Amino acid sequence: MAFNHGVAAPRFLRRQRGRIAYDLHGADHAGPLAVCVPGMGSTRTSFRFLAPALAARGHRVAVTDLRGHGDSDTSFDVYGDEATGSDLIALIAELDGAPALLVGNSMGAAAAAWAAAQRPDLVSGLVLVGPFLRDARGGAALRLLLRPMLLRPWGPALLRSYLAKLYPGRTPEGHAEHEAAVLAALRSRDRYRAIRRTMTETTHAPVTARLSEIAAPALVVMGEADPDWKDPAAEAAWIRDRIGAEVLMVPDAGHYPHEQRPDLVTPAVLAFAERVSRG
Length: 279
Fold this sequence. Notes:
- Residues 35-265 form the AB hydrolase-1 domain.
- 41% of the residues lie in helices and 17% in strands.
- It is of the alpha/beta class.
- It has a single domain (11-278), classed as 3-Layer(aba) Sandwich (Rossmann fold), CATH 3.40.50.
- The two termini are 31 Å apart.
């Protein structure tokens, strides 16, 4: 399935220090808005299966790049969950789509959760895919360690090796093209600098502190083999217990189950979106 089927060149949301690139599927549809946001290091083509499926059900679907990623500008001076969450809120307002379903992967899930806590009136539901709603073990010490590790000239190769390990299980259709686009960003000094800043400056602590404020219904989608967690099922259960989420554990998938197992994830998200839209 071609990700850009029926979608023109990227649109741009203007922010104070730059522009956020996004695609809009089903621009003429009258259905509710869904906003999809990928994780750090990835791009909006991560949603090449889910976005068209949501649009086929009548949703308008905006799929963004993170700050400094994909086709977004590299001129931003702030990165991370809160900055990205504020971009999601601005995009919902720009598209006059409140309340919207937010679909976030990894750090994008944290940003979606922050937006739901910050502006509950704008968020009808959350789909959290491979979510980081708290810092991994090591926290600030790990971020400090990453700073020299990700410096040039060795940093891009190290990051390339790490990203390749996030897909245990099935290799998704179109993966070679998606991976090529992700890796191409590591060769651009400006874009790599933005990606490195995102990885070394982002803390999920502000999101963790606000989980009790999330009122929107949520679906957690976690790959059973997600290498970012020692026990992915336990992490999904931790999130479930804090925000009352439903949980879908996806076999034969790592950190990107929406890419690796669209046969399981897409129907589950469509069903959840329908329940949310009915209120």
